[in-house]
Amino acid sequence: MKILGMGNAIVDVICKVDDNFLAKNKLTKSTMKLVDEVEFKKLLSNLKIEETVAGGSVANSIVGLAQLGNNVGFIGKVNEDGLGSKYEEGLKKEKVQYFYSKKKEALSTGTCLILITPDSERTMCTFLGIAGKINEDDVDVDAIKKSEITFLEGYLWDEGNPQKAFEKAINNSNKIAMSLSDQFCVDRHKPHFLNLVKNKLDITFANEQEILSLIDTKNFDEVISFGKNLGKLMIITRGEKGSIAINKNDVFECGVQKNLKIVDLTGAGDLFAAGFLHGYINNLSLRESLQKGTDMSSQIIQRIGARLS
């Protein structure tokens, strides 16, 4: 396998709302909030569902890589329930190898309510369910050893069992890539994430807010210095300012595509990572890999949801 992803196996439920809905429910636009099952159902009770699709950040990236013709797999925890079956079918349909045997669990399969406002921003309310209870027994070491790169997500990292699952994956991997996922995750686990970036990861994906928060600065020049001193590959997306790759002393930049009809920013970072990793594992240059990431994210933000087909 080229790449094996490990992340939260989440079924996305996509709804359109106005800004008033966010204010009324005390939700901060463009962020992710963890909710319990009761709050999840309460939020959903007044909404019309636009689409339901198997999601999760790294899973979206892995599906994007599969659609580009790469041999990929995924590890993520679901329950043996309706949503769990839908999740597994969704991956298999996309020719992603699924390295997890679902069984009856106390918690249901995880779900994420994706609220899209008229400005195309997405605000997420996630009920992790069984997805967040991943443990080291769920990690298929054989699959990891047979993969060129293991791709992890910050959303999945938590102290206790998920941390042990991470460590088992990292200790058996040929090469490790990870997305910092969300500023919420970075702020919550800053010392751990900084340790991962400095000492464990070969490739780090972050957006500008996440990396500024991680190294406690407001100055992007300091991010460049940090990336150069790191001596490893760091990929940063910067919204309208495009994207940047820092590899030791080399810095490569890529602009955004203009005049796009943006309808939903869900999955922009996930598909950017898919495009970049596709370039990277198929021996494109870092500049060409950034361009491939930009192409993929440009396609996904012009449609609803985080899957291209």
What does this structure look like?
Helix content is 38%, strand content 22%. The mean pLDDT is 93. Strands 6-5-1-9-10-11-12-13-14 form a nine-stranded mixed β-sheet, with helices on both faces. It has helices at 19-24, 37-45, 57-67, 82-93, 141-145, 161-171, 183-188, 190-199, 208-214, 220-230, 268-281, 286-300, and strands at 3-6, 10-16, 32-34, 49-55, 72-75, 97-98, 110-116, 122-127, 149-153, 176-179, 203-207, 233-237, 243-247, 250-254. With 309 residues, the chain is an alpha/beta fold. The protein has one domain (3-300): Ribokinase (UDP-N-acetylmuramoyl-L-alanine:D-glutamate ligase), CATH 3.40.1190.
Entry summary:
The chain has one domain (3-300): UDP-N-acetylmuramoyl-L-alanine:D-glutamate ligase (3-Layer(aba) Sandwich), CATH 3.40.1190. It has twelve helices and 14 strands.
Major sheet characteristics: 9 strands, mixed
CATH topology: UDP-N-acetylmuramoyl-L-alanine:D-glutamate ligase
Q: Estimate nothing, just give the exact number of structural domains.
A: 1
User: What order do the helices and strands follow?
Assistant: EEHEHEHEHEEEHEHEHHEHHEEEHH
Give the overall shape, derived from the CA principal axes. Answer: globular
Specify the CATH homologous superfamily: Ribokinase
Strand content: 15-25%
- Please give the order of strands in the largest beta sheet: 6-5-1-9-10-11-12-13-14
Uncertain parts: none
Q: Overall mean pLDDT score?
A: 93
CATH-defined architecture: 3-Layer(aba) Sandwich
**Helicity range:** 25-40%
Cα-to-Cα separation, first versus last residue: 22 Å
**Backbone CA Rg:** 18 Å
Question: Using DSSP, what is the number of strands?
Answer: 14
Text of the CATH class: Alpha Beta
